[in-house]
Amino acid sequence: MQGVYINLANSTERHRQMTVALAALDMGWVRRLPAVDGNGLSPSGRATGLSAGEHGCFVSHARAVHQASIDNDWTLVLEDDLRLSPALPDVLAQLAPAASSPYDLIFVECMPYATTTALLGLWQSLRRRLPAGGTDDAARH
Q: What is the CA radius of gyration of the chain?
């Protein structure tokens, strides 16, 4: 398994925070992937409605996926503004067998829309997967 986090060159504080957070989870194998600054890209190639930043983010993710396909390995792709869960290493260990599965992409800890309905749906899904009869806070992380 390999991993990258996408980080703009001028986002030095985010780079530092990611380095510290990854080290705390013993995930020092995740390396920095320089992000593409959308302000330096031609607007003519941008999809309608995307800002320069969104376009740069898309291109950065596309580069990460392309690199993963060249390396032919299972690759974790993160952004530099996320909050890493202490449960992430365990989740990744459980997903490792999926690397040889028919899946091309697996999304973990992705919450693009934090609406009440979405959060309720996630909670109900999580609750169905929690150990029966326990109040173990670690299982709820």
A: 17
